[in-house]
Design brief:
With about 475 residues, the protein is an alpha+beta fold. It has helices at about 10-15, 35-45, 45-50, 55-60, 130-145, 185-190, 195-210, 220-240, 290-310, 315-345, 350-360, 370-380, 385, 395-405, 410-420, 430-440, 445-455; strands spanning about 20, 30-35, 70-75, 75-80, 80-85, 90-100, 105-110, 125, 150-165, 165-175, 245, 265. The structure holds adenosine monophosphate and magnesium ion.
Length: about 475
């Protein structure tokens, strides 16, 4: 079976000078570990051909098919608040773009494909555990309806890569995204004062993501607002799932509004706004409750990068951009209230009720996901399972009375809640168990079982209670590591 892809590489063709053409590394023994056949089908790609030797050449990056124009994208970024003027794809390649049967454009991108000129001190490699983590969590997010890059395949390379705790199997993740443009892509050219390239990049991004803004007198400003709206909607969705990205650097903040670069990310179990999972986030900069503030901070960095294109007079550009950021903050608050109103099955957002619910959770060790699983029954008058989630349920009954009074049709509300509140999320202890079995015992069974659950997150399955339960008390707190 021969592999033919309908490449249409706008980035390579239109943005010459904004990237470095590059090739993937050759591997001793590349093997396909996982192929996302339904995603391949949705893209109009032939899953059978992707499983062939030629398909492997694409998915592991060592032998790219006709029409690919592999390149490493340049970008900068604020990492934990400090600016790095040159990051870029140090271990990744944009292979090319394809149009799906609906005409939507998708990047095909490899992570772990070898060193590039942006690698700095890095080895250009990825290892199986983190590749599978990104595969699993991005697929869970997609099933939960959250905008995200998606995993097309995972391959092993056949060699061992040294990491913090010893050698691990080398791996490559093939993923797709609406684009890989980041806030940091704009920062790269802004920081170098390359105004023409910045303008080229803006025009490209607008054509790709906001074509209706093309040609507008205030296109840069409108673009900032669009990116902000998408990101506000995204982060509100994260908050509604207890998702913690872990590394909300500006190079991990997309223009498309998709979640990208799943590193030390995780879903919170016991509600606590200070929750972090990343070993390097010692100050809690990217804690659950800080994510909205960091989003606005990141958007302010995008605004800064765009200033010369917003207005030739800097004062005026700053005033106009500041107004936009203010509107995005308000839009985020509205999105957040909408997200939690849907989770509660309310017809209209009730911010006071929602805020008081968050106060109820404080210091109670309430499992975030279980609370929303217990809520439909509570709405129908069966409150014991919900009350049992609290250490001391003082005040919960009073809140429940207010809540029930806000539900004109509890049956309908319960049905709506079951459609939006997941039974299954990738719980950290299960993720760790699955990745450990895959990386160190060559056993993909636990991973496949967990993947099947999180790909159908709203459907409870009898006998699968383990996948819907918080970590047993004797499981140590999970920390995930960067440099993955
Ligand atoms: P990340 O933490 O994956 O978002 O990556 C941040 C930056 O570090 C990006 O420029 C990556 O390309 C680069 N990077 C991360 N890991 C490696 C690695 N093993 N080799 C080369 N570059 C890397
Ligand atoms: Mg990144």
């Amino acid at each position: 079976m021969s592999l033919s892809l309908p490449f249409d590489n706008s980035y390579a063709q239109e943005l010459v000078g904004l990237y470095t053409p590059w090739q993937g590394q050759d591997w001793p023994d590349p093997q396909l570990v996982l192929l996302n056949a339904p995603l391949a089908l949705a893209l109009g790609l032939d899953a059978g051909a992707l499983r062939s030797a030629e398909g492997l050449g694409l998915l592991a990056g060592h032998a790219l098919p006709e029409g690919a124009q592999p390149l490493a994208q340049a970008y900068a970024g604020h990492q934990f608040g400090g600016f790095s003027p040159q990051l870029g794809d140090g271990r990744a390649l944009l292979v090319g773009e394809v149009l799906d049967p609906q005409g939507a454009r998708w990047d095909i991108h490899l992570k772990g494909s070898g060193r590039t000129p942006f690698a700095r001190g890095g080895d250009g490699r990825a290892v199986l555990g983190p590749v599978l983590r990104e595969y699993l969590i991005s697929e869970a997010m997609a099933a939960l309806g959250v905008p995200t890059t998606r995993a097309l395949a995972a391959c092993t390379t056949g060699d061992k890569v040294l990491r913090q705790f010893g050698p691990e199997p080398g791996a490559v993740l093939a993923r797709i995204g609406a684009s890989h443009l980041r806030v940091g892509t704009f920062q790269f050219f802004a920081a170098r004062g390359e105004r023409d390239k910045l303008r080229l990049l803006l025009d490209y991004a607008i054509a790709r993501h906001d074509p209706d803004v093309t040609g507008a007198e205030d296109a840069a400003l409108q673009f900032l607002e669009r990116v902000g709206q998408r990101q506000a909607r995204l982060v509100a969705q994260w908050m509604g799932l207890g998702f913690i990205h872990g590394v909300m650097n500006t190079d991990n903040t997309t223009i498309s509004g998709e979640t990208i670069d799943y590193g030390p990310c995780a879903f919170m179990e016991a509600y606590d706004p200070a929750t972090v999972f990343s070993s390097i986030d010692r100050m809690g900069r990217y804690a659950y409750g800080n994510q909205p503030a960091i989003l606005f901070w990141n958007l302010a960095r995008l605004a800064e990068a765009l200033l010369p294109l917003i207005d030739t007079q800097e004062d005026r550009a700053i005033t106009r951009a500041t107004e936009v950021i203010g509107r995005i903050q308000a839009a985020y608050q509205a999105e957040w209230a909408e997200v939690f109103a849907r989770k509660l099955g309310l017809d209209t957002p009730d911010p006071a009720l929602i805020e008081d619910m968050h106060k109820l959770w404080q210091g109670q060790n309430v499992d975030f996901t279980s609370f929303f699983q217990a809520l439909p029954a509570a709405a129908l008058g069966e409150s014991a399972p919900l009350l049992s989630l609290f250490h001391s349920p003082d005040g919960v009954e009073t809140w429940l009375e207010r809540y029930c009074a806000a539900l004109p049709d509890p049956e309908a509300a319960a049905a709506r809640m079951r459609a939006v509140n997941p039974v299954y999320i990738p719980r950290n202890h299960l993720v760790e168990e699955a990745l450990h079995a895959a990386s160190f015992q060559g056993d993909m069974g636990p991973f496949q079982a967990l993947l099947a659950r999180v790909q159908a997150p709203f459907t409870p399955i009898a006998g699968m209670e383990r996948y819907a339960s918080p970590a047993p008390a004797d499981v140590p707190a999970i920390v995930t590591y960067c440099g993955t």
